[in-house]
Each structure stands twice: as C-alpha cells, then as structure tokens.
Amino acid sequence: MTLDDVKTQVVGIEQKVPLLDGSHRQYIYLDNAASTPTLLQIQQKVDEFSEWYSNVHRGTGFKSQLSSWVFEEARSIIADFVKADATASVIFCKNTTEAINKLAGRFQCPGAGEERPVILTSIMEHHSNELPWRKVGRVIHVDLKPDGTVNEQDLYKKLDKHTGHVQIVAITGASNVTGYVNPVHEFARKAHKAGAQIVVDAAQLGAHRPIDVKRADDPEHIDYLAFSAHKMYAPYGIGVLVTQKNIFEVGSPEYVGGGTVDIVSLESAYWKDLPEREEAGTPDIVGVVALAKAIKVLQEIGFDAIIDHEAELTAYALKRLVGIPEVVIYGDADAKRARDRLGVIAFNVRGMSHALVAAILSYEGGIGARNGCFCAHPYVKQLLGVDEEESREVEAQIIARDRSRLPGMVRISFGLYNTEEEIDHLVDVLQMIVKKQYKGEYMLDKERGEYHPKGFSYDFPKYFTL
After folding, report:
1. From the candidates 93, 109, 373, 375, which is the catalytic residue?
2. Residue 257, phi-psi category: left (phi > 0), alpha (psi -120 to 50), beta (remainder)
3. Is 263 found in the same domain as 225?
4. What is the dihedral of CA 37, 38, 40, 45, to 10 degrees?
5. Residues 214 and 114 in one domain
6. Domain, as residue range, for 353
7. Is residue 90 part of a domain?
8. Which of 98, 196, 346, 351 could cross-link 166 (Cys pair, CB 3.0–4.6 Å)?
9. Do residue 454 and residue 345 come from a single domain?
10. Of 299, 321, 342, which closes a domain?
11. Which of 299, 317, 352 represents a domain boundary (last residue)?
C-alpha cells in the first residue's frame, strides 16, 4: 500500500454531512489526534477474522485454537513494531489511559510517615500521564520554555536535585496540543543515571513516528510505553502497555477473575504468568486483530513516506494560517520546521470564542476539528497565558456548571489521507469567520460551553440508527 492508495481506503471518506444552509458536502476530518478513522484493509481483516472468531486460551475447538494463535501472533507483531526484546511484556488494555493507570497502580503508596517517591513529569502532559501519578507519588513538574517545549535543563536539574528519590520520569512522546516531539531517549539516559525509570505516553507517536524502546541494557531504553489503536487507524477498542516484566510479576493483578489464575481453591489463588495475569476476563480479540493489521499497513507504507506527507501538509497549513492576521497559532508556527513536529496545530481567532469558531467550522464548513483544552489543561492554560487568579475564577464557574468562559483553542490534526485541498477549504471558512460572514445565529449552552445555531438541529436517525 502507498499513500496514494490510502486516500481511497479510508472508511467513510466519501460521506457527505448536512450544513446549516441545507446543503451537503463531503466531510473533512481534521481530528486525527483524537481518533483516526479506520481503513478498508483493516475493516476487511476484521470481517475476515469474524468468521473464525472464538474466545482465546483453553478452548479445544479449532476456532478457539486459531483465535488463540492469532491473538499471540498479534502480540508478537506489536512487540516487533516497538522493537521490544524478550525482557518486555506486551499487555493489552482498553487504551493509553488504562495502560498508564495500570502501571501507576504497581507503584505502591508508601505507609504512614514514609516519604512519597518523586514522580517527574512535564506541564505538557495529557491528563492520562499526570493524574494517575498523583495517587502514588509526589509529582514535580518540569518547566516549559517560552515556546512551549519541555525545558530540558530544568528536567536535568530536578533529576540531579532528587537523585535517589525520583522513581519515575513520565513524559509524552509528542504533544497532542502543539505536536512537539520530545527527545525521549535522551531523557531516558538522564533518568536512568539518576536511578529512575521512564514512562513514555506514545499515544500521539504510533501512527506518525517509528518507535524503538531499545534493549533493556541500553542506557536510552524506554522502561514503559503506552499507546492506543484508535489513534492508529484501528478504532476497535484496544490499547497496549509495553512493560518490564518484573514489576508485574509480584503481588496480585490489578483485576482478578477469569483468565488470571492457574488454580483456585476456597482459600487461595495462584496467578498465571504474564501477560495473562494482567488481562482479566475475555479480551478484545477483534481489537487486537485490527491493531496488528494497522501496524502492518503502517509498515508497508513506511514511516519515511508518512513523515514526508505529514510534514508537507503541516508546512502548507502553517503558511496558509500565518497569512490570516487574526489567527493566533500556539507553538511553533515556522513552516520550515514542520518536519520536527507532528501535524497538530492549535490556534484561536482573535476576539472569538474557540467554541464558536469550532461550531462554525462544523455547521457551515463541514469540517471536523476539536476545541477546548484537549485533556491537557495546565499546558493549554500556560500557552494561553491564563494567570492563577483567572484560573481560579474559571474553576469556580465550572464547578457552578458554567463553562462559558472555559479557556481553550481550536485544534486541527492530520492523518495519512488529508490533503492540501482540505486545508484550502479550512482557510476559506476561517476567512469567512474572520470577516463575520457566517450565516448562523449561534446560541451558547453555558453548561456545556458549546455553541449551536438557533433553530437548527441534526436529524441523526436519518443517517444512522441502531
């Protein structure tokens, strides 16, 4: 498969959506950082497997044995994709969030009076790589540089200061807000030198950059890695935790029950080996098949081609957006450095709510973008320059169920299949918004912080019903 093939392989790419003026236009999906559509090859592989579907492990029937073989073959494909060696284990979860929560749960809270271990993380993080660590340690944040990138020197200074007490450095592989890619192997080397381990949230990397966790004896080895299939063209409900085995080989599993035990009596239970002991109940076998096929598709296209395409798109989009004076871009807006970041661009239109801009893009442009804080509130607020007083005011309003002043941005993000023509349409609609030429009268739902055109609603059952 080539990139040209992909453009004909996206499931639903031809679907037209209703607009405010009563017309329909082909949907433009620019929300790939949240979740990607699937591809025909992946959908077809799922359909093909469905004829042979059965539960895995312990079944003696042919379909069960075949399903078990496929399940473990997929695990091997995933391990090879991230270049994990035999010291690592691939554990299936629902998504990146569950994977990091599962991992954090293995770092036991200290007893009364004991010092809590230090967890270093950055202000750039998605909440999923921030909130779970608050349960198990004293989270210390690494500062940002003025451009919104991680301040490496502050990280190294804090590693030195807390040497012997730092248990984890939790860092994102790439930001879901600005697209910045972190030098995780350099961070790993520094973390290991300080006696810490490193956790990489790779949710934004899997579909865009090759991943190499490196051998366990390499100083730049990634100890723990988490990512999700739904951001890799396989939105069937699976996530992955690539982990060192030793941390999960002691104690009880997070969830206990079917599939986690070798034998149970009325008084005791003996846990299975990894990874089964951490995969309680019937797993998402179809999701695993879809992820394995998605990985094969990505490898067939090749990451060099993927990076070239997305860098060209990002550079083109930055050049077009910079040409609109009213548009404020957060993060690096230099098109010449597009290859150094992912195709994720966050922006605002001066003097307009991000929620209103996103609504007009959808209702009048047929464009699927995203707005808000993208589950990275501290990062977005710092990029926006929201001070502590304003932040407390907004928090009080939200608690009072009023999200009308929620800080945020509009975000567009690119996939394998997006085109320059789609960016041109986005820019045309933004120009219309800037000139206040949009047609709708938009009403704010304060509780949800969303705008909807007055007198208009979608007739969803006309398009899909259960």
Report:
1. 375
2. left
3. yes
4. -170
5. yes
6. 3-30+302-462
7. yes
8. 196
9. yes
10. 299
11. 299
Burial group, residue 88, by CB count within 10 angstroms (0-12, 13-18, 19+): buried
Q: Is 328 helix (H, G, I), strand (E, B) or coil?
A: strand
CATH code for the domain of 348: 3.90.1150.10
Query: Coil, strand or helix: which one is 171?
Result: strand
At 57, is the secondary structure helix, strand, or coil? coil
64 inside domain: yes
Render pLDDT for 334-378 as a digit per residue (tens, 0 to 9): 999 999 999 999 999 999 999 999 999 999 999 999 999 999 999
pTM: 0.95
d(CA 194, CA 76): 32
Phi and psi torsions of 107, nearest 5° = -95, 95
Q: Is 275 in contact with 241 (CB distance < 8 Å)?
A: no
Please tell me whether residues 23 and 78 are part of one structural domain.
no
Residue 237 and residue 264 in one domain = yes
Is residue 3 exposed (0-12), middle (13-18) or buried (19+ Cβ within 10 Å)? Answer: middle
Q: Could you give the C-alpha distances from 441 to 176, 319, 337, 437, in angstroms and in order? A: 31, 31, 39, 11
Spatial neighbors of 166 by CB under 8 A, at least 6 apart, are: 117, 118, 119, 120, 158, 159, 191, 194, 195, 196
Tell me, what's the pLDDT at 113? 62
Cα separation, 214 vs 188, whole angstroms: 11
Exposure of 356 in the CB half-sphere (CA atoms within 13 A) = 19
347 Cβ neighbours under 8 A, 6+ residues apart: 321, 327, 328, 329, 330, 409, 410, 411, 412
Residues 409 and 421 in one domain: yes
280 and 319 both lie in a single domain? no
- The secondary structure of residue 81, as a DSSP letter, is H
Q: Domain check: are 292 and 311 in the same one?
A: no
List pLDDT tens digits, range 173-212: 999 999 999 999 999 999 999 999 999 999 999 999 999 9
Length of the chain, please? Answer: 466
Active site residue 373: no
Dist. CA 206–CA 191, nearest whole Å: 23
Domain count, the chain: 2
Q: What is the mean pLDDT of residues 299-305?
A: 97
First to last CA, the chain: 33
